[in-house]
C-alpha cells in the first residue's frame, strides 16, 4: 500500500493520449484457449494487413477507471460489471467469452505495474481500456478463430476539461446510433466510427454533444454521445431522478446503474421512464424538468445546459449545474476516491 505520489500534478493530461508504460496482453486460440498472459512494454503491435478484426469490425472494448484513494492506495471502480458487459459484447459479435477472473487479473496486473503514473490530483484518474479483436490473417467472411485481449491505460483529466461546465447538445434528427436488433446495447467498435459525423455536425452547430433518438418513432430520447442521460423533475427533497429505460438500443452504463442506486440512497424518488424530445422541451418550459445531466466513466456526471433541435433551442433550468446533479456528482466522486464508506463493495483495491 505504498503511495508513490512523486508525479507533479501538472496541467491537465487531457483524455486519451497520456498512456502508461505497460500493456497487458492475452491470446486466444481454439486449441489453447486463453493463454500467454503477459505484461509488455507499451509498444506498437505487429499485425498482418488481413487481420480480420480490422476488416469486419470484430472488435469490442471497455472503459473503466482506477482512482487514487484517500489512503494512498489505488482502486478500480466496479470492474466485475465491466467484465460481464465485455462478455455480453463478445457474445453479440460471435467472439469467445473471457472468464471474468482473467479480465480482472489483466486489469490488476496493469494497474499494479503503472499506478505510480497517477498523481493524487483529485481530478485525475487512470482510464483503463480493455480491447479484444479477431486476429486471423484471413479474409473469409466468418468469425475469427484467434483473438487478442489487451488492456492499456492512460492518465485522464476531465473529459470536458477540468472545470465542470454544462454542455450544450444537438438532437440528431437524420442519423442513428443504434437500431432494434443491432448492437447499440454492447460496446463494439463498430458503434462509434459512424457516430463521428453526427458529433461533428453538433460541433458545427455550436454544441458539444449529440442526443440520439430511437429509430422506430424518432422521438424517444435514448442517450447522449457515449453517455447515458438523466432527468430531474421537481426540486428539493421531493425531486425525482429518472433515466431512459434500457430498450436494447442504448448502452447499459455502469455509471447509470450506480447513480440509480445512489440517488435512491440519497432519498430521491428514482425511475426508469421514456421521455420524448417534445416532453423534454415542454417539461423545461413548464419548469417541471429542472435538471438534466449525462453520465459515464469518462464524463462522470456532466450537466446539460442547452438543447438545440429543429424547432429551436431551449434551456434546462437556468442553464447551470443544478443542486441534484451537483449532489449526485459529489456522491459518486467521493465514493470513487474512498472518501465515504463503500457500502456496496464497488471499489476493487489493486495497489
Ligand atoms: C460506455 C458508454 C456509456 C457509459 O457507460 P459507463 O459504463 O457508465 O462508462 C454510455 N453510452 C455509450 C454509447 C457508451 O459507449
From TrEMBL:
Domain of life (superkingdom): Bacteria
UniProt KW keywords: Amino-acid biosynthesis, Aminotransferase, Branched-chain amino acid biosynthesis, Pyridoxal phosphate, Transferase
Residues where N6-(pyridoxal phosphate)lysine is found: 187
Pfam families cross-referenced by the UniProt entry: Aminotran_4 (PF01063)
Gene3D superfamilies: 3.30.470.10, D-amino Acid Aminotransferase, subunit A, domain 2
Catalytic activity: L-leucine + 2-oxoglutarate = 4-methyl-2-oxopentanoate + L-glutamate; L-valine + 2-oxoglutarate = 3-methyl-2-oxobutanoate + L-glutamate; L-isoleucine + 2-oxoglutarate = (S)-3-methyl-2-oxopentanoate + L-glutamate
Record keyword Amino-acid biosynthesis present: yes
GO molecular function, one term: L-valine-2-oxoglutarate transaminase activity
InterPro entries hit by this protein: Aminotrans_IV, Aminotrans_IV_CS, Aminotransferase-like, B_amino_transII, BCAT-like_C, BCAT-like_N, BCAT_family
Pathway entry: Amino-acid biosynthesis; L-valine biosynthesis; L-valine from pyruvate: step 4/4; Amino-acid biosynthesis; L-isoleucine biosynthesis; L-isoleucine from 2-oxobutanoate: step 4/4; Amino-acid biosynthesis; L-leucine biosynthesis; L-leucine from 3-methyl-2-oxobutanoate: step 4/4
Enzyme class: transferase
Cofactor: pyridoxal 5'-phosphate
Assigned EC number: 2.6.1.42
GO biological process, one term: L-leucine biosynthetic process
Cross-referenced PANTHER family: BRANCHED-CHAIN-AMINO-ACID AMINOTRANSFERASE, SUBGROUP IIII AMINOTRANSFERASE
Similarity-based family: Belongs to the class-IV pyridoxal-phosphate-dependent aminotransferase family.
Name of the molecule in the record: Branched-chain-amino-acid aminotransferase
Upper classification of the organism: Bacteria, Bacillati, Actinomycetota, Actinomycetes, Pseudonocardiales
